Each structure stands twice: as structure tokens, then as C-alpha cells.
Amino acid sequence: MKISIRIRGLRKAAILIAFVAVCSLSIAQQKSAIILNSKKISTDLFGLFFEDINYAADGGLYAEQVQNRSFEYNPTERKEWHPLSYWEYITTGFSYGRISIETNNPVHANNPHYIVLDVEHIGKEEKFTGVSGVGIKNFGFEGMIVKANDRYNFAMHTRQLSKEPVSFTITLQTPQGKIIAETKLTTSSVAWKKYTAVLTANQSHDTAQLVILANTKGKTAIDVVSLFPEKTFRNRPNGLRTDLAQLLANMKPSFIRFPGGCLVHGDGLGNMYRWKNTIGPIEERKAQRNIWGYHQTTGIGYFEYFQFCEDIGAKPLPVLPAAVSCQNSGGTWRIGGTGQRALPMEEMQEYIQEVLDLIEWANGPVTSTWGAKRAAAGHPAPFNLEYVGIGNEDKITTEFEQRFKMIHDAVEAKYPNIILVGTSGPFHSGEDFDKGWAVANQLKVDVIDEHYYVQPEWLISNQYRYDAYNRKASKVYLGEYASWGNKLSNAIAEALYMTGLERNGDIVSMASYAPLLAKDKFTQWKTDMIFFNNNSYYLTPNYHVQKMFSANAGDYYVDKVISKNNADSLLAASCVYNSKTGDIILKLVNGGTAVQKFQINLASFQKLIPAATLTQLVGIGTAENSFINSTAIAPVTSTFNISKKFNYETPAMSLTVIRIKTK
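-> C-alpha cells emitted (663 positions)
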């Protein structure tokens, strides 16, 4: 009896093993069938590039409402600016006093200027019915957006300069003086101290002003005046504007490159972006002139960039200067870009250590010097940094080559697992491009960053650019690219080119459109993805194309699935397979003026679910979106039934994405 039971048990086990083997074989056969006509491509192919251009950070993605919060504006940034720009001295109820800008004993050496409010008399006239006092008013970035019943976190640093405490009324007001929100606080320290309060709005307004009014006699130093909506993206303190941040999250980018391009190497050596100046409490960060002609508070600093990447599941790609400034420094772009300056060799070891310290800050344990600083900011776990960019479309001079090699070798020696991204200059070809690639080949740089802004016709005629690239050389990161314009025809040309990026995803490891954000009335660069003002935005056709690719990415490029008229350069297509989801994604581009047919053969795939998702962007080539009509061009999603083989007719000037699920 025991023997019989054992035999039955063995048979049952054998049957189970055989069943598992058959299932495994079925899965293996499907993958094998796919791989026969496919190649592995980068899982980080489509991402985002953020640069503080067009007021993208301060007054944009950064949710701070107060402009010139630390009284650091100056004529170096704009000739008409000074420490009291966007502030107004006010006296109410027949009160009087005086204000001054001072620098003795500041809140921090990196933040040298502050305002001194000296209140001599508080009016108590019976005929005045408002709040009497002496103070200052801030207008924000073209006004402050306030929403009814929302809470706003106010903060300011003060140092009491008189014996007696000074009481303040803090209000949000309309331009006509109607109070929307109000709170009170009183100073209590002769040393710098941060005071906080919450303002709750009783109505909505789009041009509110912040008023800080002293109601008692006395003298007080004030600095770092801040007003944040409590509702930031993920409710982060010192956080991001919710709507703009969500638009970026919706794209499902695989990475974000930051903090910019030309912003990184800066307008002269003193204007290079130094990451250590951007971490820690905001009163300790070092603000500086923005190369694009305004001010950057560094309120969005390296911690906020890394945190945002983590929040939306994107890999961080910080870009550091290659120890040289922009070749266009001082406006020398007008005479051929002769303004590059290099850090003196005696400063290079210190600078190299700065680069190494960033990696430790991002990835080091809390017991390390810089890992402890990350932990102190609220993130004890490592950020798992994989990529570091060195340089941004630099002129490839001898000085650049020497310094890049020093940085490259030091990082490779200490952190061999970090993927370094080099640069090949600002154009798709030419002297700097050739020299940049020569440096990459000599040093065996992991990834080389190519940039080009071109006419849409260039993208169409160069859609096979990367087919001929050497697969044994450095990988390519197409870090900045766009066709000159935000019409649908521009976006469709980009879509056509992006199918070539997918086809060559084995050599092109990353790509990001640029620039990302542009504020209405403050736009220096006209080809952008998202245009916004203080309370609204519109998405360009370019945004929709980028999202349709990045949200529908795969890790295998599958050939011989889509057939078309190969003689027509205005037709393009790609098929990718996402091994995580099992989804098959077809992208069909028709940049012509007539309906065109594509033939689809899905014979390589098993267990297809007939009901697919079809998303289509289509319209007149000259059409574009605006604040007046933000949805003139927008993708439409529907259900589409597929079979193993089928034909699909694409409309003129369209991008069609068909996403097919498998069982």
C-alpha cells in the first residue's frame, strides 16, 4: 500500500513537472519568436530635459510665490533691477518710518542682502479704519495665484534690532487692498530666527499681493520671505507647482536631465552652476545670475531635482560643468563664440573632488560625509544615481579636452559603475562634433551627448542617421533636439525621426526634446514643449508626440512587423515589445498630405488580445495650440480590434499608436 501511494505521488509530481515544462516552453517559444526579428534596445530611451530657461524654475515649476524673496536682485542680472525690485515700501494709517538694504551680519554668507524695517510711528487716527503700520508688499511673479479655502505657508527670517519685540500683521490682499487672508506674529529673538504662519484664503484671486506690516514701533531685519501653497506636487515642502509637475509625470519619462544646458557651464567661470550651492536650507543656498538674463534662487536645487525624479520614477541625470565656461560667455556668440574660459589647473583637484562628492551625496551611506548631508535633508536612502553628465555642448578646445579627461579618469577610477555622458558640441556635425567624438573614442566614454535644433525637413531627410553608427563605439544621448516650431507639422517630423531612434535604440540609449517649459511673456527660446502662465498652460503638438512615445516605450525593437511604401520619406513606423507588460506597440507616422496604408503582420506574437488601444494625433500641418485654444491639436484614444494580419490606413499628417496586449 505504501509503495502504491508513493508511485502515484511520483506520477503526480512528474505530471506537474511536465506541465510546468510545457508552459515554460510556450513562453520561451514566444520570446524566441520575438527575438528572431528583434533586438534589445535601451530601457531609458525617452526622457526629459529641464533647463531654467524661459522662467521655467522661479516663477514656473518652483511653487514659490514671492519674487526676489531674499532681496538679491541686482543690475548685473537686469539693468533696471535692484534689491527692492518687486517690493514696495508701504505706510498705512498715517504711520511712518524708513527702510534700508544692509549686509552686516546676514542670515548666511551666501545670502548677503536683507531689508531693515525701522518703524518710528504707528498712526492711531480715528478716521482710519484699516490696519495701521509700516511694512513692505510683494507683487510676486505677475501676481500671486490664490484659491479659496486653500492654505498657504508663510515664512520669513527676522533679527530684532530694537529692545522691544515687533508685532506683524501678514496678509494676502487684492491690488485694491481687500484682505483675502490674514495672520499675525511677533518677533522674539535678537539673532536670526525663522518664523512661520499659515494663511487661509477666503476667496480666489489671480493677482494677489503679500503684505508684511509692522504694527508696533521698533527696528527689525527681514530676509528670505516665502509663500508656498500647501498643495505642492506630492505635498513636498519647498515643492513644485502641481499642474506643471503632473504634466511631466504623465509623460512617464525614463530619466530627467538637469539643471540645464548652457545654464550649467554658465556665462564665465563665476557663473558656472555649482551643485553644492543648491543644497541645504534655502537661506544657505547661493543665488546667482541666470545666463538667460534673469535670476535663479536655486530654490529648486539638486535635492529637489533628485526627489522629483524619484517621485515620478525617472532616473536622475545631473550635468556638471567640464571645468570650462560657455564659449558664448560675454555675448561672444555674436563674433563666433570665443568666450570659453577654463578653471586654472591649480583648482582642478578641488573641482574634481566636487564631482566625486556629488556621487557620494547621491549614493553614499549615511555614515559618509556627503551621504549624511543627504540624510539630513530628509532622504537617508541613496538616490541610486547611475548617470553623470560632464559638459554641455562645449567648444572642444585643448583646455576642455585636458579637463574633461581629468574628470573622466577620476570618476572612472573611484566609481567605475557610474555611466559618464560626454559632449560633442552644439551641432549635428562640424569641427566640435568631430572633435567631441574623437575624445569619446580615445577615452571610451560611455555615452556621448549630441545636440541639434533643425528645420523639420532635416529630420525627415536624416531619419536613417543612426543606422550607420558604429555599434562598438560610445552610445548616443540625443540630449537636445527639436524642429524649429510648435506646429503639428513640426511634431510629426519629430515623430518620424523618433521611430528611427527606436529602430536604433541599441546605439541611441537616451533622447530628450528641448526646451521643456516656457512662461508666457518671458520666453527667450520659441521652440518649447509646454507654454504656461501663472494659472494655466497649453500643450504643444510636440508635447503630445513626446508623450505618445515615452508612455509607450518598449525594450525590444521588432522588425518585419510593419510594411509600407519605403520610397515615401514621409512615412515611418516602428514596432516595440515591452517585456514587462507583454504589450506590443506599433507607431505609424504619415507626414504627407494623403491617406497612406500600412500592412501589419503580427505572426511572431502569440495570444493576442483583439481589443487594442489606438491613440491618434492628427490635423492640419499648420495647426498649433494656444492659450485661447489649448486643444486645437490633441490626441484621441479609442478601442481598435486587431487580427494577426491587417491593414491600417493612416490619415494625412498623423501619428498613430496602437497598443496591443497579450494574454
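The first helix runs from residue 2 to 36.
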